[in-house]
Amino acid sequence: MRLVFAVAVAAVLASAVAAQSPAAGRSFTPARLWDGKTPDFRGIWQVKDTAYVNIEGHPAEQGVAAAKSIVVDPPDGRIPYKPEALAMRQENYRARATADPSIKCYQAGVPRATYLATPLQVLQSPGNFAIVYQENHAFRVFHPDTRPHFDNTDWWMGDTRYRWEGDTLVADVVAQTDGAWLDQAGNFHSTDVHIVERYRMTGADALEYEARIEDPVVYTRPWTLRTVLYRVKQAGARIIEDECLEDANGVRHHISPNDPRNRLTSDYARWSRPAGR
Amino acid sequence: MSGRRSRVAGACVTAVLCALLSARASVQLQAQAALPRLPDGHPDLQGLWMKSAGGFQGLFIGSLDGTNFAAGGGRGGRAGRGPAAPEYPYTPEAAAERADRLKRGYEDPEARCHLPGVPRALDQPGGLYPVQIIQDEKSVALLHEAMHDVRIIPTDNSAHPRNYWAWDGDSRGRWDGDTLVVDVSNFNGRTWLDMQANFVDQNEHVVERFTLVDRDTIQYDATITDPTVFIRPVEMRFTLRRVPADQQILEYSCLEGERSLQHYTDEDGGRKRRAR
Predict the structure, then answer these.
(1) Residue ranges of chain B whose pLDDT lies below 70
(2) Residue A118 · residue A110 · CB < 8 Å
(3) Once rounded to an integer, what is the mean pLDDT over residues A242-266?
(4) C-alpha distance from B226 to closest chain A C-alpha (Å)
(5) What is the distance between the alpha carbons of residues B143 and B266, in angstroms, rounded to a whole number?
(6) Contact criterion met (CB < 8 Å) for B143 and A132
């Protein structure tokens, strides 16, 4: 009887731990910055999954393997949309080839910038934390949560306040625009979105990322996604300049790419001279 | 008697001067010693900084024909604040090209949300957009509010890459005593230096010097060379002042927040007819 009880307790405990995080059992102590205290997350990181296509998972398509949902809560991997919001998502999905804000070179927003197909770099020193995203040279400066949010605005990359919980960086993000999507599939949020991010190293070259997303306008309940960023270790790897508007047609190229009038009459190519002349 | 008096007076003056000079020198030494530093001994440039007066790009509004409305509509690019735009030492061909571009000031790449290049990234109109610096033993990163432009500068004096061309070029830094020296090359040659069609091409080469003068002041010096555009190097100098700690960098959305497209000319995709 006692044995049965102990097993039952152990099972409950185990499931509680599992519900918290599948990685909770593993522990890794990251290196420290030169203050001897702050966990050192510096480096260039990138996901290996393809959640940028659809965080709810997607079938295989040309050049992209099938993938499971990175939504870990609810357990069914589905974003708990309100009915009218779900209809909106379906509409976005149908129009995604042209309606995705990223096509227009807008900054990706949070959390989408984290799991893009391009790397990010964590810049850090004691008391300072920033992430530079390669795509469209977006960046976020994380501010300590000792001061309140810069709120009542709508930014693409939001306003971020953070604190350390042990070796986990916990960031609180508000003040985001409703113009950004969560992926290429049209998943979205409103300006009321409130995100709590958790960054935690689970190995020397693995940075676990979790985002709890709350938005009473769009979702019936808060939900959570989780993915892993891996260290980019190629020698000489750097974040390179990614100028989305790289076309000579400049801004109009993505305002209305299909408009034949949208072509500059003057390009400075004619000024180009061979180097060293 | 008078000779003795003057000798005494001279000695007094010398003593006072010496005292003053040595006091000034010791103040300088103290300032140097008091500079915040990283454990590697290099000056700590970190913080939020704003360009104060100086630089070549003063406030300038309305550059289609060189009219500066910020200065009360006067021609010639005299800024309402800050110094006059310099006379760049153009080659004759480049001077003609610049005059041509000046007629199409609306083609300024930065107005189209392109990256500003160097040194324009820092040489924004004074007092408008700060830059956040984050530094460690391997790099100095400049996070510019303007255009959300980013430069992560390795401080290992490494070589520029081959076959890489960018709006902001490629920056490589090294420490020369207490001064961060950045060599910038590999430009794509499409940037303007300001809103007045002053320009460089792909042969641009910039040497920047960041010197922490005191805890709250960085002196910035840049030497721009471009043998196919300028007949001699162009020197630029201004100071960056520390922004009070209760302020923070904000988001700059260029294209994302563009509200002025209706002012673009018809040729340029806007509704307003091109003024003649």
Answers:
(1) 1-33, 53-86, 126, 256-276
(2) no
(3) 45
(4) 9
(5) 35
(6) yes
A102 within some domain = yes
Torsion sign, CA atoms B265, B271, B272, B276 = positive
Q: What is the CATH number of the domain that holds A139?
A: 2.40.128.20
CB contact under 8 A, A268 and B258: no
Continuous segment of H or E residues that includes residue A252:
helix A251-255
| B258 inside 8 A of chain A by CB | yes
pLDDT of residue B26: 59
Domain containing A212: what range?
28-231
Decide if A207 is inside a domain: yes
Judge whether A208 lies within some domain: yes
Phi, psi of B98 (to 5 degrees): -65, -40
pLDDT value of position A217: 97
pLDDT number for residue B165:
84
pLDDT in tens, B44-69: 999 999 987 555 554 444 333 344 44
Beta bridge partners of B179: B176, B211
Rounded CA-CA distance A125/A127 in Å is 6
Provide the shortest C-alpha distance from residue A118 to chain B (in Å): 16
With H, G, I as helix, E, B as strand and everything else as coil, classify residue B120: coil
Number of domains in chain A: 1
Q: Which residue has the tokens 């995604």?
A: A96
Tell me the chain B residues in contact with residue A123 when contact means C-beta distances shorter than 8 Å: 134, 136, 139, 141, 152
Residue written as token pair 């290429």: A184
**What are the respective helix, strand and coil percentages of chain B, to the nearest 5?**
20, 30, 50
Quick: pLDDT tens for A60-85: 988 888 999 999 999 999 999 999 99
Residues 6 or more apart in contact with residue A237 via CB below 8 angstroms: A44, A119
Partner residue facing B149 (CB), from A137, A272, A277: A137
* CB-closest option in A107, A130, A265 to B267: A265
CA distance A28 to chain B (A): 24
**A238 touching chain B per CB within 8 A:** yes
Indicate the pTM of the whole model. 0.82
Q: Between B135, B228, B258, which is nearest A273 by CB? A: B228
Q: E strand or H helix at A212, and its extent?
A: strand A206-214
Q: What is the mean pLDDT of residues A182-190?
A: 97
Place of tokens 């004096």: B157
Domain-embedded: residue A171: yes
